[in-house]
Known about the structure:
The complex is a heterodimer of chains A (217) and B (269). Chain A has helices at 2-9, 13-26, 30-49, 55-72, 103-114, 128-138, 151-165, 183-189, 198-214, and strands at residues 89-95, 117-121, 142-146, 173-177, 193-195. In chain A, strand 1, helix 5 and strand 2 form a beta-alpha-beta unit. In chain A, 56% of the residues lie in helices and 12% in strands. Chain A has 217 residues and is an alpha/beta fold. Chain A is elongated and about 55 Å long. Chain B has ten helices and eight strands. Chain B has helices at residues 13-20, 24-36, 53-67, 80-89, 103-116, 134-150, 173-187, 207-220, 233-245, 253-260; strands spanning 2-5, 41-44, 72-76, 95-101, 119-126, 158-160, 192-193, 225-228. The A-B interface holds A 51, 54-56, 59, 98, 100, 103, 124-125, 149-151, 153-154, 180, 182, 184-185, 188 and B 10-11, 13, 47-50, 78, 125, 127, 129-130, 166, 168-169, 202-205.
Amino acid sequence: MQDLVNAVVEMMEDEAMALTKKYVAKGVPPVQIIDAYKEALRIIGKRFEECTYFVPELVLAGEMMKAATELIRPMMTESASNLGTPRIGKLLLGTVEGDIHDIGKDMVHMLMDINGFEVLDLGVDVPAQRFWEEYTKFQPEIIGMSGLLTLAFESMKQVVDLLKDRGARDNVKVIIGGGQMDEQACKYVGADAFATDVVAGVNICKGWVGQLHDGTT
Amino acid sequence: MIIIGEKINGTRKQVGSAIANRDADFIRDLALRQFEGGASYLDVNAGGLPGREPEDMAWLVQTVQEAVPDATLCLDSPNHAALRAGIERTDKTPMLNSLSGEKFRVDGVLPLACKFGTELIVLPLDDNGIPQTSNGRLDIFRRLAEMTRNGGLPDEKLYVDPLVMAISTGTDNGNITLETCRKIKEEFPKVHLTCGLSNISFGMPLRSILNQAFLVLAIQAGMDSAIINPEERELRGILMAAETVLGKDRHCLNFNRAFRAGKIGPKRD
């Protein structure tokens, strides 16, 4: 299915959809089709890091992936309904209180999903208390907080402080993301890591769950 | 065109550390360069970490004002205590950045603007976020304009930012902003329109030419102010050229003056 991979990578939206339909009609297992998309998205992510692809390509890739999964989902059996691969970890995600920027957060959502994470996205302007409540229910390995404004530092700190108060800080990794994030902000907030671009952030998270699974946290 | 220089912003790393270290020379230089580049207003954002902001704002205001007494300061903060600290130290009535339909800004920023009769940047968004349509933005602005009028602020003091969203994430985002400009100008002819231009090109390569193209279109849609880096020589040239060809520069005097002063066009040795 290299032709499908290529079509997605080269942003040929119509061709990708036509090929997807063709393979479905031929009886190719849905999991294999999704794997082709995942391979395409891996390459797209790499091109993004290399600065030959930019945000619009990521957005369109996400749309193509979504269209394909919507086409395939009804055909998938119960056991394969999680797109074939076991989820490697859980991420609780949101833009913090006082901030409504969602471009970065939405891209993290998409890429983390593609990389095998189960993502619970709380949306924008999410108060600390809400992060805490959803954390206790969802029990993620990672909490990702997004914010573009420096105002967001304070809200992010509130979430971490709440985790500390409730004795849960050591049970979860915290990453903050946004254009203004740096070492100083990370320290102030009390996060484990910061990222100023989406792909870098996703790589940090993948590293963390890899460690968890190796038992070397 | 009223240019608001964007560079004195504590969320930028170098400026942030200059504020923390009270490096007055760095700030003075930044203020002076922008003013000389044509910015009659200077945005002042103390940024950094919360708690210290009012104190930092007060120091910044004093430092910038000493360097360029003729500039008007545009105090940029969501924190009304920081705005207040800034207002109390300005000799010239400042501009405030910004009011929006968010409750904490209506409660915190609006009373300050009315009390001190400041100019005011207004963002048509509210606690539900940024409307995806020009009509949604117009609705919010109507509500805010009623409040500012009731508070005694004339429309001339308002600088409405139609909100520029990244073209990389929505193909229609540029059109929505331009449409918002036209609708606001039609209903409120006396308000100014301003914008943080560079958002348009977020996530894209060759950002500067995208910014330039969008600026020209925005000027045609009624934009008469912009929050930019006035030291970007090409942007300044495009801006003046657009105003000139749109008949906003009588006998092309501004354009030719800027040319003679060496402020636009290829740099001469």
